[in-house]
Write a structure and sequence with these properties.
This protein is α+β, with helices and mostly antiparallel strands. The protein has two domains: 122 residues, 3-Layer(aba) Sandwich (Rossmann fold), CATH 3.40.50.10330; 175 residues, Sandwich (Tumour Suppressor Smad4). It contains nine helices and 19 strands. The chain has a six-stranded antiparallel sheet. Strands 16-15-12-9-18 form a five-stranded antiparallel sheet. The chain has a four-stranded parallel sheet with strand order 2-1-3-6, with helices on both faces. Helix 2 runs parallel beside helix 6.
Length: 342
């Protein structure tokens, strides 16, 4: 048995073991995920899911936003499991299809993930193996926990918009990194893509004056100043492996918020490793706190863009609200991270 906090592995031949006969799974495949590798392995996916589940369907997205529609349809059709087959962007769309108002569209529909994407940061927090047979086996046999989801109201060119996120959100350089990464050739993989985008954004981004108000464990709080980045973490990882949510879980009822004040570019490069090794709070100008809700507005003239699960849907002003234990999520936790410690 794996140690707590490490991905579970399965010492068995692919497809061995009994199939899940009691649950019906809908797999929503983004064929462009993983630089097109997901679509190229469609036949392999169908064979693998048939070994793990007796009742299944695979539906392929046709473009941006289609996974939201497919997830809504799957929830309404009564699927037991709705799995995003792709990266963090695909998972983001599926989550938005499963949520409606402050509640799941179908409270019996459990979310899961079959990782195929460039970043696949959510996969690390969910403890889901990257191997296709093992990730499907995890979907068939893993632990299901009531999980926190973030609701976000943000500004767009068309006006205010509400979306949901399950992994990590933020704004500032974060939004610029996502905008750059999504325009790059991702064939080198998530970590290289996001590292290049991070360095480029750090060099080019002009920090803005930001006013933040939040509700924390000790009541209301405020922060105002020049800001490079803000991370609002429900899960642990973002940006191709940045470990910004260390010590929290997706079931604790809190966002872990990290603020980074401006520092010279040379110092940012010297400290960039701290974004990846879990020591982000040791960076110069870093502040951390927990919050159930957070509002932010820009006091400067330039737009400040928002990152939601690796997508860039809008800009400040923004309001984040945590919806505690609202969505059933199936992961590869050997024990519940809530009851067994972190």
């Amino acid at each position: 048995m794996s140690q707590l906090g490490r991905p579970t592995t399965f010492p068995r031949d692919a497809g061995s073991g009994s199939r899940n006969k009691s649950e019906k799974i809908c797999l929503i495949l983004n064929p462009r995920a993983g630089a097109g590798r997901a679509g190229a392995r469609l036949d392999e996916l169908k064979l693998a899911v048939d070994r793990a589940f007796e009742q299944w369907e695979v539906h392929t997205t046709q473009g941006p936003g289609h996974a939201v529609e497919l997830a809504r349809t799957a929830a309404d059709a009564g699927f037991s499991l709705v799995a995003a087959v792709g990266g963090d962007g695909t998972a983001h769309e599926v989550i938005n299809g499963l949520m409606e108002g402050d509640f799941p569209r179908n409270p019996r529909a459990t979310f899961s993930l079959i990782p195929f994407g460039t970043g696949s940061d959510l996969q690390k927090t969910l403890r889901i193996p990257k191997s296709l047979p093992e990730s499907l086996w995890m979907a068939a046999t893993g632990i299901t926990l009531p999980t926190d989801v973030g609701r976000v109201t943000l500004d767009t060119e068309a006006g205010p918009k509400t979306e949901y996120f399950i992994n990590v959100a933020g704004f500032g350089t974060n939004g610029e990194v996502v905008r750059r990464a999504n325009q790059m050739d991702k064939s080198w993989g998530g970590q290289v893509t996001f590292f290049r985008a991070t360095v480029g954004a750090a060099f080019a981004y002009t920090p803005q004056q930001i006013e933040i108000t939040y509700e924390g464990p000790d009541g209301p709080g405020t922060w105002t100043g020049a800001l490079t980045s803000c991370f609002v973490a429900n899960a642990a990882y973002c940006g191709g492996g940045m470990w910004v949510g260390k010590g929290g879980t997706m079931q604790d009822g809190w966002f872990d918020v990290i603020l980074l004040e401006p520092s010279p570019f040379v110092l940012q490069l010297a400290e960039v490793r701290r974004l990846y090794d879990g020591t982000v709070l040791k960076m110069r100008g870093a502040h951390g706190f927990r919050a159930r809700s957070l509002k932010a507005r820009c006091l400067g003239a330039d737009p400040v863009y928002i990152d939601l699960d690796g997508e860039a849907p809008g800009r400040l002003p923004v309001q984040f609200e945590l919806l505690p234990s609202v969505l059933p999520v199936r992961g590869g936790w050997v024990h519940s991270p809530v009851t067994a410690g972190r």
